[in-house]
Amino acid sequence: MSDPAPLTTDARRDAALAWLYGRINYEHSAPIPYSEQGMKLDRMRELLRRLGDPHKRLRTVHIAGTKGKGSTAAMVASAIREAGLKVGVYSSPHLERFEERIAVDGEPCPPGAFADLVDRVRPVAEAMDREKEGGGPTYFDLATAMAMLRLADERVDAAVLEVGLGGRLDSTNVCLPAVCVVTSISLDHTEQLGTSLEGIAREKGGIIKPGAPAVSGVMAPGPREAIAAIAAEQGCRLWQRGRDYALEASTDGLRFTRTLAGGGVETIDGVTIGLLGEHQQSNAAVALAALTVLRDVWAASEPELAAALTHDALRRGLQRARLAGRVEWLAPVDPALPRVVIDCAHNAASAAALGDALATLEQEGRFAADRRVLVLAVSGDKDAGAIARELAPRFDHVVVTRFVENPRAIAPAELARVVHAVAASGAKVHTVDEPGEAWRRANELAAQDHDAPEAGAGVVVIAGSFFLAAELRPLVLRETSPVQGDAPDA
């Protein structure tokens, strides 16, 4: 009897993913548990020890924050790549494929390499399952370990690690950072992190460690002071936005300034930001601070790496940074169809930032002002009312739906009641259970009016959750294409 044919790469990848998804997965839990009992860093350290401690071979920029983590990570990685260095990024969640979470020089992990990573962690995880009281590593533990293995194997010059949830108890918090970054603090995951901004800041600031400089973009007094207190306790230098660095308008774009440790001021003129939205100026400021502080760290031990992080490389990196699902502007193939914006806004602060970005796009004449359609779905652990208050009044129609590949979605009928309560502008609310049908309905509502074609098409905005963006983006891309840069005619 002949041996069975070996599995194809795609079959190996699918089998590996099925096993990984079979682990305890808090991304699919409602509510998400958050405690030292459920999120054990000792378990994560043991997992990495059995895998050869790959995190100890990485030069890490560790990024936490309520919002702005993904954009800041994208800008930091883009600048390092523009410097001619090799950079890895670990981010979560993914939009379309798991492999997006582990990228090297902007390229997701290949399917075969992903299957190989699962083959390496699976026997270790299953051994820990048998040995460890309370269970072995979770889905996110394993995803994080796989990322560290991949980036260490690839010998990246820098690894940019994005925190999954919180910071203090997050699986990524076993890393040995060169720089720690906290982008912002606002209310989110309140069931896990609480309703105090200072308490949330202490959880996010839990990534700050002795010996590694920290960069904070937090501006509100209470959370800012909480971050400063942690840095003081850990004995590490803190670079605080508004005190130690800033990014402000100048005659030729934006000007970044940072007070140097030895005195004097570093200045980078002519900064432009490729990601859309005024809120990206805050993220860009944090990214530039992290990059210049990283350069200082490297200057003391690896001057050849430090020398690569020139001002020109940093400027190019910020201008060329791209990130799917963050005020992502998509132009239709057919001009009679609406423009589309996909954004993963999933809390009040990120919804407000999206609203500001949309106002700017409307002022620039990017879409007709009278056919604005929002497609909205929200997780049950989010403040749907706060999100709807920020977004619904800006639209003529709100198509309420859900996402189907994650059980955390609020039922559309319940979400519709929330939207009705806050849509003071008189927006018409449509309830559509199936997300694909919601996209088609929104497309029809925002399309060009055949009786008045000169008015042009409107805009469809998809927001409220990473999971909604993940499910609808492939459908949207069949009829649109991403707009690179600031194309005024798009």
From TrEMBL:
InterPro entries: Folylpolyglutamate_synth, Mur-like_cat_sf, Mur_ligase_C, Mur_ligase_C_dom_sf, Mur_ligase_cen. GO terms for cellular component: cytoplasm. The keyword Magnesium applies. Residues 325-465 form the Mur ligase C-terminal domain. It holds the Pfam family Mur_ligase_M. Residues 63-290 form the Mur ligase central domain. Keywords: ATP-binding, Folate biosynthesis, Ligase, Magnesium, Metal-binding, Nucleotide-binding. Its cofactor is Mg(2+). This is Dihydrofolate synthase/folylpolyglutamate synthase. One of its GO terms (molecular function) is tetrahydrofolylpolyglutamate synthase activity. The keyword Magnesium applies. It comes from the Bacteria. Coiled coil: none annotated. Pathway: Cofactor biosynthesis; tetrahydrofolylpolyglutamate biosynthesis; Cofactor biosynthesis; tetrahydrofolate biosynthesis; 7,8-dihydrofolate from 2-amino-4-hydroxy-6-hydroxymethyl-7,8-dihydropteridine diphosphate and 4-aminobenzoate: step 2/2. It catalyses: 10-formyltetrahydrofolyl-(gamma-L-Glu)(n) + L-glutamate + ATP = 10-formyltetrahydrofolyl-(gamma-L-Glu)(n+1) + ADP + phosphate + H(+); 7,8-dihydropteroate + L-glutamate + ATP = 7,8-dihydrofolate + ADP + phosphate + H(+); (6S)-5,6,7,8-tetrahydrofolyl-(gamma-L-Glu)(n) + L-glutamate + ATP = (6S)-5,6,7,8-tetrahydrofolyl-(gamma-L-Glu)(n+1) + ADP + phosphate + H(+); (6R)-5,10-methylenetetrahydrofolyl-(gamma-L-Glu)(n) + L-glutamate + ATP = (6R)-5,10-methylenetetrahydrofolyl-(gamma-L-Glu)(n+1) + ADP + phosphate + H(+). Belongs to the folylpolyglutamate synthase family. Functions in two distinct reactions of the de novo folate biosynthetic pathway. Catalyzes the addition of a glutamate residue to dihydropteroate (7,8-dihydropteroate or H2Pte) to form dihydrofolate (7,8-dihydrofolate monoglutamate or H2Pte-Glu). Also catalyzes successive additions of L-glutamate to tetrahydrofolate or 10-formyltetrahydrofolate or 5,10-methylenetetrahydrofolate, leading to folylpolyglutamate derivatives. One of its GO terms (biological process) is folic acid biosynthetic process. Its EC number is 6.3.2.12, 6.3.2.17.
